[in-house]
């Protein structure tokens, strides 16, 4: 069974997630507000405002929802993220997938940011997210993912993007267990 982490970058909107979520070929890990639109096997929540929102929803009663220890301490319906890393949700979900023993991890909706004036999160401007015009830096996200790639050298991390030439953070290119493929290559590789 293939493991996939679904982030909230705008490139995700160009891919029909129902193909993944309806397939029994995948175990899915999602980040923060994805629960508003889709049911994933494992939801990872790291922001306090999103955690409060999930806590007040029925979603937490019917799904596995992981969070930082500080969030779990306030609501024991959340499952603690193993080793309690202080990562953003995308890196924490990627860590969880690798920690769960998956050796091939697909990453969808991990777009990064071209400049501090861009905000490529599809939930920008909603509860728990900065507005579209709020300057956002990708530095901590890039660093956190690099730490995950380094910690789990026996796993392969494959970012799925609209094109194989999609912008990739420079430091990710140095990880031998990381590569980028396009949507078509992904469909072929997982036989969608």
Briefly say what this structure is:
The chain is built from seven helices and eight strands, in the order βαββααβαβαβαββα. It is of the alpha/beta class.
Structure, explained:
The protein has 192 residues and is an alpha/beta fold. Helices cover 27% and strands 19% of the residues. An 8-stranded parallel beta sheet has the order 5-4-3-2-1-6-7-8. Helix 4 links the parallel strand 4 and strand 5. Helix 5 runs parallel beside helix 6.
What's the arrangement of secondary structure elements?
Blueprint: E1 2-6, H1 18-21, E2 26-31, E3 42-45, H2 48-55, H3 59-62, E4 64-67, H4 69-72, E5 79-80, H5 89-99, E6 104-108, H6 139-151, E7 156-161, E8 178-182, H7 183-190
- Helicity range: 25-40%
Shape: globular
Task: Please give the largest β-sheet.
Answer: 8 strands, parallel
| CA-CA gap between termini | 13 Å
Structural class: alpha/beta
Q: In total, how many beta strands?
A: 8
Number of helices: 7
Instruction: Flag low-confidence runs.
Output: none
Give, in spatial order, the strands making up the sheet with the most strands: 5-4-3-2-1-6-7-8
Strand coverage percent: 15-25%
Radius of gyration: 16 Å
